[in-house]
Write a structure and sequence with these properties.
heterodimer, A: about 280 residues, alpha/beta, six-stranded mixed sheet, B: about 900 residues, alpha+beta, Methylamine Dehydrogenase, Chain H, MetI-like fold, eight-stranded antiparallel sheet, four-stranded antiparallel sheet, 20 helices, 34 strands, about 40% helix
Chain lengths: ~280, ~900
Amino acid sequence: MNATAEAAPDEAPKFNPTAYHVTKSDQGDILDIRNFNLWYDDVQALFDITMEVPRGLVTALIGPSGCGKSTLLRCINRMNDLIDEVRVDGRMAVDERDIYGKGVDVISLRKRMGMVFQKPNPFAMSIFENVVYPLRVDGVTDKSVLEDTCERALRGAALWEETKDRLKESGLSMSGGQQQRLCIARAIASDPEVLLMDEPASALDPIATAKIEELIDELRGQYSIVIVTHNMQQAARVSDNTAFMYLGRLIEFGHTETLFTNPKLKQTSDYISGRFG
Amino acid sequence: MTTNEEATQNKTDRERATAQRRRDKGTRKSVLLADRAAGWGITAGGLLVIFAVIGIMVFLVAVALPLGGGGETLEHAEYDLPAKQTVWLNADEYSTLGVRVADDGSYRVFHLTTGRSVSSGQLDFGGERATAIGGVLNRDRVAFGFQDGSIRFADLIFEADVLLQSDLPDGAEPLDQRDRLAGEAIYSNLPGEQVRRLRFRAETQAPVAVADAPIVALAYRVGGTTERPTRSFVTVDAEGVGRLSRAISKLNIMTSELTTEVRTTDLPPLPADTQVTTVELTTLADTVLVASDAGQIFRFDARDFNHPTLSETITAFDDGSTISAMEFLNGEQALVVGGSNGALDVYFKLSPEQGAAPDGYKLVRARQHEPHGAAVTAISVSQRSKSLVTEAANGEVWVRHSTSDQVLLRYDHGGKQAVDSELLLLPRVDGVVRVASTGEGDFWAFDYPHPETTLDAVFGKIWYEGYDQPTYTWQSSSGTDVFEPKYSLVPLIFGTIKATVYSLVFAIPIGLLGAIYTAEFVHRRVRATVKPMMETMESMPTVVVGFIAALVLAPIVETWIAAVLLAFIALPMGLMLAAFLWQLLPLQTALKLDGLPKFFFMFATILLSLYVAYNLGPAFESGFFYSDFMAWTNGDIGTGTPFMFLVFLPVGFFVARWLVHRVFGDRLRDYQRGLTKSHAGALDFLRWAGLLAAAVVLSLAAASALTALGFDPRGGVVDTYVQRNALVVGFVMGFAIIPTIYSLAEDALSSVPDHVRSASLASGATPWQTAKWVIVPTALSGIFAACMIGMGRAVGETMIVLMAAGNTPVLDWNIFNGLRTLSANIAVELPEAPQGGTHYRMLFLAGLTLFVMTFTINTIAENIRLRFRKRAFQL
């Protein structure tokens, strides 16, 4: 990292989110994050994040490694609870309901969110069972419901044609790209309000990546998607809005095209043009 | 050159060197060397481990192998003695000298291996010829019967004393490498410049008139003490009259005069025309057996000396063959009967529940040994073991072992017909002497170290002396020579399996649930404390655990058995009840109390359940087990219904749950979804209570039905209560292997990649659902390995079972009875087993069996584990 970046946290200009042009959805916002802070033990990892994620659109989080974009994503479905010594303050709400409020049932919160991880992580079960796992967890045993859901989710993940004849086979017998799409199918099987994707294509080859991106494009409109990516081209290709994070702070958030072509801040343009990160 | 220039120069040198190194991409020699050395070292270490294991195995096999190794004939000598009707043979303890007594009373002492005559003499027969002869098992006290109805007693004694080499008389003639002949004595070389002198001495006593007719059969036994022997004998005369006599010698203390009083009683008459061939008598003189040439055996009960009765008459052979030879085996528990058809059968005097003679006993044909090709003409039994030697009319001389039912060695005597010969198995069972009336003498020296053990005897059923039927029995040693060693490994293998099964039933659920709990539910910090504690528990010396089990736990369990059994019900019930009560809490409260308070609540629940079990124990005992659990297990009181009810309870619960699910399907759950947490919890609680009630009804119905059908669990897995029992072993050995299972299973569970756990949790699964559906199936190979290693430890565990299991080698699944495992057996008996003996080698065979068992378990486990692992491999 160069000197500019090191000096950045202190000198980073405060910005007013409203000053940026965020592509708004006609359905309003799904996520509302206000003055959100997070500490791992004594180390603060997120500083005063404020952003609104529009419903039904794809929002990309970009930034260099360790900038807190994955942490922010995992805060949305409280996966950070699994890590000890995490402390948060500020407000984060999904669909007007507070995520970190008192008495929030984490389990039911997570049921409303689908999540796709960096590494494909299907279970050691059949393809069918992998897809309908969220329903099983919810206690659904009706076979026809499960089968319908499975087909819908697999079609949604553009995997149906490849797998309809081998639903009984192990989810682990598929290729990496297929496994990741299987995970997407699992994530959308419970018809979540938000789909969280944590660098879904980073472990895949270019062809599989292209398919995942295509799929995200197809899912646009049906789900509100928040995607963390390392790959700026990917963010540019798939997202409607892009948030640039740096050292735990949200630096710039706006319409993707605007952000990439005409960033407001120097840090953003430095990152985008590849000077650091 | 200035300093500056030098520096520059140095710098360029350094740069050049660096550049050189960079160009030179080769690895340094020392690195290569270290790499190679490490490779060799590790290979050598690994090979050494493999060799060590193979070495142990080879050693065990090498020690155990002679058990099935058979034996060999060391020597065969033939010689000629004077042709006379031989009636008795005896030999000394050291297999050096033999004595042949002829019917005219003349005897000849000869060197066994060479046939060289050592001395000869004459017993005082008053010029008569003996018509019958009987002798004790040691063959040194003999009774002769005569034509005139009288009998004479004789002692044939070998005297041995140890002298110094210098005492050896001059001109002693060497006979073989060991023995020298001088005068009428044999001098045998002993280690340490010593010699053993062996001489023969014979004494005849005055005749005692017994019958009026010639005596045709005679049996003689000496009981009582050495100072005051009780000599008993049975005679049968030519008129078919049997007489039982007893001679009691009394020493007058004042005059030192020995007076002998002979009392005689007549046996009940035999059927007319019975030709008696042989008669046998026990040392206690309570049983007389008379064999006739019609193949019948008459058994007389002589417990009342003055009024002997004929208890039983049996026909020895189904094909009507006559009895041509009959002899008691050492111990007088088994009667060997040889037939004119060559058959050789063994009869036991048993007291069966049905079909017994009026005196309560019955002669039962227990063994049928391999028959000879012709009539059995002579039988000679060992004085110390269950070996015997038989001769047949066709010249076959077979050395046999009765318990293991095998012919050890076969001699055919060159195909020559046997002519009225006498047979003798040497006292140390290391040779056979046979002297025919023609004077032909044969001597076979052999070595058969382990005649008791065959594959059948070790792993199969054997009908032992005094048993009602063939059994698997381990009973390796006792105080006397007449004991029949019983070397069946089956009860020990069974005991090992029983201890393992009961301890695993206890340890696997607790170990695995504990592992799941710490891996998936508790805070990392708690886990970091609990796990090392459990591992410390593992390092507890098992002898301490066993000691506590035997001296503290076993008496407590015995005293509070009802409470202990009740705890098995109270604990799960209490925990389930507590879980449902927890569900009733409002969500806010539940979340607030989720950490430490919840933990303490669980702990308190366990304590409370145990307290309840402790207090309700007596009530439970009176309600379910008719107020006396011990009597109930004996089967003295009550029916099996209460016990079966308790066993069926969990089954009933699951059946009820299944039925409810069949009827209502998901409707109940869908309805629950609309309720608040507390209400849903209350509904759950009601559902649970209802299911429990249904389970009680179902299991009561099933238990009553089974009782009505006549089924009673007592006599199976529950039976008579013994203090040191499998339940205690299950507890304590379970306690010892829980840490093993826990620790390994916990490792397997926590090594499931976090991204799999995250995927499940992110799908909205609860930690329990995640554990149940994702983590456990993924970690299954490791969990399975944990159970198997726990099992391996249970199989090999020694001290706990040694101290707490009662060490009774019985074949019995009864959870309230003891057991003996292979390992405990080795620990108990190895100190008392003489090195190289059958018992010693049997213990090594037990060790080998244990080795094979654990080896097999581990191999199977490893294969299954690998198969499981393939499923989770790509994670």
